[in-house]
Write a structure and sequence with these properties.
Layout: H1 3-36, E1 42-46, E2 52-56, E3 60-68, E4 75-80, E5 85-95, E6 103-111, E7 116-124, E8 134-142
Parallel strand pairs: 1-3, 2-8
Antiparallel strand pairs: 3-6, 4-7, 5-6, 7-8
Length: 143
């Protein structure tokens, strides 16, 4: 083969090798970024997460903290959950200190089955429902 054809062929091989290296590095970086965005097994939610879809790895735990004022007579009541979803233990009230009645109520849930799971809580007075309650809604999506 003529020397100028060998040089041309060498440049094509080197260029192809360079493209292959870039493709391999790109695939490796994509795999790393995918692993970095894996949904957590423990999720902490607040009132600002209402109406969102939240990714959670199954089995997983969800802690939900909502504003609460027991003096108002209102309570947070779980309206819907679903199969593979359970409360881990009763909610816990946390006051703001100094004997304050306002604070937060913390709920603890376990997600054991894959799928899409809507969670809805109403903030209402116990007894007959009058009017539209304030609601917290979130959708949990497994990964």
């Amino acid at each position: 083969m003529a020397p100028e054809r060998l040089g041309s062929r060498r440049r094509r091989v080197e260029k192809a090798a360079g493209v292959s290296i870039v493709l391999v590095l790109g695939a490796a970086m994509t795999a790393c970024s995918t692993a970095a965005t894996k949904a957590p097994t423990s999720v902490a939610l607040t009132a600002s997460d209402s109406m969102k879809t939240i990714q959670v790895h199954v089995p997983g735990k969800v802690t939900l903290t909502l504003p609460y004022d027991p003096a108002s007579g209102m309570i947070w009541q779980l309206v819907s959950g679903g199969a593979g979803f359970s409360t881990v233990h009763p909610p816990a009230f946390h006051d703001r200190g100094s004997g304050a009645t306002q604070g937060t109520e913390e709920f603890f849930f376990a997600v054991k089955d894959k799928g899409t799971l809507p969670i809805v809580l109403d903030y209402i007075k116990p007894g007959p429902i009058t009017g539209a309650p304030k609601q917290f809604k979130v959708t949990l999506q497994d990964t």
